[in-house]
Amino acid sequence: MTVSLTFKETMAGHFALGATDPTAGEKLGKESGFNLTMHAEVSLVDLDKFLADPLHLGGLSGTIDFPPMGTNMVAHSGVFNLFKPADDPNLTYMIYELGFQHGGQDYYLAGHKDVRDDPGFDLWSDTTTLYTTLHQGKDKTGPVIGAGILTLGVMQLLDLLSTVKTPGADGIQGKVAAIAKFGSFFAGKLWDSYVVSKFGKFLYDKLSDDSFDYDVLVIGSGFGGAVTACRLAEKGMKVCILERGRRWEVKDYPRDPKDAWWWSNENPAEHNGWIDIRSYPNMAVAQCSGVGGGSLIYANIFVEAKPFSFESGWPKEITYEALQPYYEKTGQMLNVQAVPDNQLPPKTKLMKEAAEQIGEGHRFLKMPLAVSFDPDFSYNREDAFEDKHSKPFINAFGQQQGTCVHCGNCDIGCQVKARNTLDLNYIPLAEQHGAVVKPLHLVSRITPLHNGVGYRVDFDRIDVEGKALIAGHLNAKKVIVAAGTMGSNELLLRCRDEYGSLPNLSPMLGVGWSSNGDFLTPAVYKRCDIDPTRGPTITCSIDYLDGSFEGQRFWVQDGGIPNLLKDAIGGLGQDHSFGHFFTSLNSLVKNDTPLSSVMPWFGQAVDASNGVFKLTRSWMPPFRHEVKLEWDIEKSKAAVQALIDMHIKLSEATGGEPMVPPTWTVLKNLVTPHPLGGCHMGESSADGVVDHKGEVFGYPGLYVADGSIIPKAVGLNPSRTIAALAERIAELIEP
Ligand SMILES: Cc1cc2nc3c(=O)[nH]c(=O)nc-3n(C[C@H](O)[C@H](O)[C@H](O)COP(=O)(O)OP(=O)(O)OC[C@H]3O[C@@H](n4cnc5c(N)ncnc54)[C@H](O)[C@@H]3O)c2cc1C
Ligand code: SF4
């Protein structure tokens, strides 16, 4: 249904007949004591159309009071035009024009507000100051007979808010959504920082209620969200998971270039697929979107962090020993196991051979994997990798799974369900205890409720078929933010700095972001039996986390490339703006290097964890707030270089030709699938965002439970540490 929006706006100020320039007219009007008041009613018949139309033209009607001529002079025509471009590229206009008659004569009152791209916070004056001229005649081509400056004061703004009507909107939620949509467009930072933070309570008092829909709302369903939702539901709490991504089924996994590969934060109604890749200066971050979060895309490595990781930077309660029982629980839930020795993929054997060749065979470790293996699987069967060899079974949570056939597709979804992903264990267990999962619910805001207990969570439901976003909200006593490192940082930064709904969040929010030092170096071999498209994506490590090589802590892993992704790479590179992400793989494929002769040496390193996430504002309409990552490689360079040097050493020791990509040698660009930090645990809000229980300083009942609470790089795959922390957080939450 078409939603309209109308509001009344009263602007008043000094005005003088005889003046032709607004500033001079204001001065003259002040001296002579004359004021002009415009009582305008703006009407946007189709709000979505108005916002989408680059001209942003609406209707204006109203009355004018100007005692020298008369009061309550009714306008017979009017123009409202938001953000009309001006000759100056740093300037846009808001146009308010009313035509009226007085004494049988036509007059035209023409006002414009200048919205300038100035540094500093001057939007309030920009958008509340109307430079006005009065023309004789039916439009502004007539001679100017008066001028002045009208303004909208704070009290008038309150009046404006109370006059907003949204015909066609669906109930209170629809009304709030329509107002918010127009408000953010109309006033950008002014709306978010000033109106909502100062008058949000006033708005919501009128428009919402405080009753609870759930005991707990969990935002996100990855390692933090699935674990906390499950354990809190087991305690008897009424839990709802709000997850932005789809509930993926095997038949929907992306395979073809035209499938739903991409998630776009800018346009989730259109792009709500598997991978979310964010690009920042010198850093790209990959994450998954869907029920099960990163477990859907991850390479199944479910490993504990090393004791050194807990030696500093954590609250005193979090130690390696304290996390042991939780590590234990998570390993049982995901039924971790190593690749059986009778079915080691060729790349695993190459890793072992390489470690031995450099005299460090003791550092080679098979990894704990969240994968179900069949002890009878054999690489020697003719059609070994076909799905028909997967043995079906029902897991401990009543879910149908199958055993691994080493097809290598882990990162793009396992079609035989051999991977023990969260949608097959923690999430069904949560549902068996009454938890409700709402996929395609993108959370945008958290606001404390008025009585001081509980929170309101606003979201957009994604209508995939209709390619639309439908606003809604739910209230709960407790909220667990588990939107992943990128999602939780962004959500909380917006709540603090854009909407002002959580203004007292720690100044440490966004500080201490880490890429976990990930790097991939492909090496080309003369032999063609490496085949990184076979076997689980990662299977083993060569452990240098003791800092014995170049004084840096890191570990090396075997990378894998899904066979199907290999076929799709070319198409993805051409068809999508994110295609540059695949550039180095694409160039190998294009050069006809057979993938069977490529070893993707992978690994992580303990970087400096000194990234800073920030929210900045565009100075041009519609004044969007954008997340920026300030990332300085300088302090992390040595750790990443040590990992690369080891890749080179291992390649050369086994007859491979390492190809360190120019994205590192020249540009020092990194890509990480393991972002951490930004909402890290601390002793107080002076040094952290949450305490050791995951509870946000200053906001009782609001928790963060995901990779963002980890204060520094762990230098290895982090999902088990995230899950263990989430187990502990859930255990300490009282029903
Ligand atoms: C290709 C790849 C391979 C990986 N391999 C491994 C591995 O082998 N081992 C390992 O330990 N780690 C691996 N990782 C990293 C691992 O996936 C993450 O560390 C882990 O998933 C983080 O858990 P989390 O709970 O912090 O967030 P996530 O698991 O990312 O979960 C966050 C969830 O929140 C949702 N969300 C985000 N914003 C919102 C919002 N506003 N509203 C509602 N929902 C929202 C997301 O869609 C997501 O489902 C890999 C990552 C990638 C990309
Ligand atoms: S290799 Fe990965 S995707 Fe293929 S069957 Fe095994 S677990 Fe599943």
According to DSSP, the number of beta strands is: 30
- CATH secondary-structure class of the largest domain: Alpha Beta
Number of domains: 2
Head-to-tail CA distance between termini: 41 Å
H/I helix tally: 16
- Tell me the name of the CATH homologous superfamily of the largest domain: FAD/NAD(P)-binding domain
Structural class: alpha+beta
Bound molecules: flavin-adenine dinucleotide, iron/sulfur cluster
User: In terms of per-residue confidence, which ranges show pLDDT below 50 for 5 or more consecutive residues?
Assistant: 119-124, 573-581
Task: Give the fraction of residues assigned to helices.
Answer: 25-40%
Radius of gyration: 30 Å
Please summarize the sheet with the most strands: 8 strands, antiparallel, barrel
- Inertia-based shape: elongated
Largest sheet strand order: 1-2-3-4-5-6-7-8
Mean pLDDT: 88
Written description of the protein model:
By secondary structure, this protein is α+β, with helices and mostly antiparallel strands. The protein folds into two domains: 5-170, no CATH class; 215-732, FAD/NAD(P)-binding domain, CATH 3.50.50.60. The protein is built from 16 helices and 30 strands. The strands form six sheets. Strands 1-2-3-4-5-6-7-8 form an eight-stranded antiparallel beta barrel. Strands 9, 10, 16, 17, 18, 19 and 30 form a seven-stranded mixed β-sheet that branches. Strand 22 (540-549) and strand 23 (552-558) form a beta hairpin. The longest helix has 19 residues, at 189-207. The chain is elongated, with a radius of gyration of 30 Å. It starts with a strand and ends with a helix. Mean pLDDT is 88; it is low at 119-124 and 573-581. The chain binds flavin-adenine dinucleotide and iron/sulfur cluster. Iron/sulfur cluster binds at residues 371, 404-410, 414, 416, 418-419, 536.
